[in-house]
Input
Amino acid sequence: MDSVLRGCGVMKVLVIDDESDICDIVSFYIEEYFKGEISFSLASGAPDAIEKIKHTQFDLILCDHNMPSGNGNLVQQYLLENRLDVKYVVCSSVEPCDLPELYNLEHVYFNILKPNIENGIIKLCSLLDLQKVNDIIEQEYIPIGINLLYLIRVMPSDIYISISSQKYLKCFHQGESFTDGDKQKYQNKEIFFLFAKVEGDKELFFKLINNTISQILTSKNKTIENKLLETHSQVSEIMKSYGFTPESIELAKVTINETAKILTKGDDEISKAWLRMTLFGSYPSKLFVLQSTLSSIIGKKLKWSTESTMQKIVMATFFQDLNLDSLELIKLVDYHDFLTKKHLFNLKECENYLSHPIRAKEMISKLKNVPADVDKIVLEQHELPHGDGFPRKLNSHQIFPLSALLILTGVISKTILNMPKANINFEILFNDLEERGYNKGNFKEIFHHTSTFFLQNK
Output
């Protein structure tokens, strides 16, 4: 193997795709998973790529097949004709083995099948012996919401307050009580999470949190929006800080299943809850509450009212932005909004945003017993009716119906959260959405019921 490909010196990589977003995503994952210094070049088609190859000796080329200015096999043909020693990888929705008349399969080093780009890059790294070695350090401190501690009452372990990203100070001993006064004190200081140092029986600890989450969701003394806000903020914090462990995944599933049961209830109850929402709380929890309840209201009007369908909607809404760290990226209404504000973000943030639907899909695919179609819904979360969204540029007739529901309710929910409800002219909003194609294809019925709901309740 070439010395550069063993991690010595700079590895020169050429990424070829006619869609710049895909080039960015591939580059992002290579940078994420390859060790050593990397120099990237990007090309939009075969002619552009061949010009770059004439002037640079690349170590690795990742190339799409279908490109308007010239398909990927022309790049391989040029490499073979000029006897260039470079590892050639096909990164496309088609497989070179299906096109033996176009590709010399003996000289295709590897094939990455879209849209599973991340998994393909990881396997390629392993094949090249270039994968980063990351020590997995289990999170020592787990966040626990003030409302949760108030319900638990007797501390299951020592409880700490975070005074920096690496420093925690003990504020409760195991067995001490968490009182009304304690809850008020921390809320007044705008401290909404304390931390437990989990030692010993983690399964027992998470069982306690599970039971408390269920207690909140089945409470008769809390409004629907309060139930969902409290539980989502707690579970999403644990998922982000503790990672995808059997315990945290089980906690997420319990929350999603109980939320789906709540949202399957009568249409009037959920509609009244939505109309009275004060939208307090923080991103992304209030987005989850607004979007999942709105999806449930419109889903019922479309006769998509079974608990299994609601589970798909709730799970997709829960996981869609879980791998985005930036709240400002989560707040972006759609791809057009991103393009308008792209200058506000650095390259890493832009790549993170453009790749997150694919990463969300792959996150879902790693979970067991997930309802069918959830991975498809999160993958399509940023597609747009006119086919100018991402990552696959599907149009209103190609987008999956449940994805269309999530997309439209997401656009509306984020618009509302970015502006007080009282200041929104819903007639103007829906006229704008109509011009943008949300009344066509698989959006048509969803748009009709959504606009009717808003214009009747304005």
Notes: The radius of gyration is 25 Å. The domain at 264-456 is CATH 1.10.3210.10 (Hypothetical protein af1432).
